Amino acid sequence: MPKMKTRKSASKRYRVTGSGKVAYKKQGLRHILTKKGSKRKMNLRHKGILCDVEAKRAKSMLPYA
Q1: Lowest CB count within 10 Å: 7, 11, 52, 54, which one?
Q2: Please, what is the Cα angle at 14 between 10 and 17, to 5 degrees?
Q3: Domain residue limits, the chain
Q4: Domain 8-61 annotated CATH 4.10.410.60
Q5: What contacts 48, CB < 8 A, 6 or more positions away?
Q6: Is the C-alpha dihedral spanning 15, 21, 22, 25 positive or negative?
Q7: Total-model pTM
């Protein structure tokens, strides 16, 4: 049986944590940073966790997750 293919777009956006949750990098930290506050930028640095419905959809694109 051949290997299952991964959706490359999903593999670049998401990763699965050790407990099985799906983590992603938050948007909004690439440019136009001068008008954003320090606290806002600090919160954007941390990874986000997908909700259960979205995580199920993301895991379906990552076959070995």
Answers
A1: 52
A2: 140
A3: 8-61
A4: yes
A5: 23, 24, 25, 26
A6: negative
A7: 0.85
